[in-house]
Structure formats: C-alpha cells, structure tokens
Write a structure and sequence with these properties.
Blueprint lengths: L8 H8 L10 H12 L8 H24 L5 H24 L5 H23 L1
Helix pairs in contact: 1-2, 2-4, 3-4, 3-5
C-alpha cells in the first residue's frame, strides 16, 4: 500500500493485522488507531527508527523511576509519557513495515524481541 492513495480503515487493518492475534480489551480501537497512524507516518520514518523511539520510551520510563526515587515522586508522571512513547514505537515498527510492504520477517522479529526484552529489563531495574 502506498501512502499516496486513500484506503479505508478496514483495508489497512487487514494488512497490518495479518497474522497477529491481539487479545487485549481495546484491540479493535487500538488496531483502528494504528491503522490511522501508519497512513500518516512520514516516508523517511523507518521501522528501525520506530523501534529506537520505542526503546527511548523505555529509557524515559526508567529515568522517571530514578528521578522519582532520588528527587521527587512527581517525576513518576514522566513514566506515563515514557510508556506511551514505548507503545507508540513498538506498536508501529512492524505494522509500518507491513503497510509499506517491506517486512523483514526474521531480522525485524529478532530486532523487535531483543529491544523489547532490553526495554523490559531496563524498566524492571527502575523498580529496584
């Protein structure tokens, strides 16, 4: 799918959700929102860049825990932003690749799961 042509939300959801079985409570709303976002992402923004953005969200969340512990608990609010940035990057990285018809199955999967685990470890260390 090219970004220049308008597609219906259901057509985009079909492409980006292929092979993914989401079970969360807001799955339908989330898929529609992701479909909305992938159609509006600039061409220069690659799936690898989105993975990096998601990891930056994990770093921001980790930093919010440290700042809240050492400076003031209000910094935990920064963690909310960090979680959103993490969700944004992680939810869109693979979906944008499928939307643009440039998925890299094994490379994308390996990169995504590695960065996800590093993010989970980093956020977990923030709790300690």
């Amino acid at each position: 799918m090219e970004n220049k042509t308008n597609y219906t939300t259901s057509e985009v959801v079909k492409v980006i959700a292929e092979g993914r079985n989401r079970t969360n409570l807001f799955k339908d709303s989330e898929q529609k929102f992701i479909a909305y976002l992938v159609q509006r992402m600039p061409k220069w923004l690659s799936s690898d860049m989105l993975t990096a953005i998601g990891f930056l969200g994990s770093i921001l969340t980790f930093a919010s825990f440290l700042l809240a512990f050492y400076i003031h608990p209000t910094f935990l609010l920064l963690g909310v932003l960090g979680y959103f940035v993490c969700w944004f990057g992680d939810s869109l990285d693979g979906r944008i690749a499928y939307y643009r018809h440039i998925p890299r199955k094994w490379y994308g999967y390996a990169l995504d799961i590695t960065v996800d685990w590093l993010g989970v470890i980093l956020i977990g260390l923030g709790f300690v």
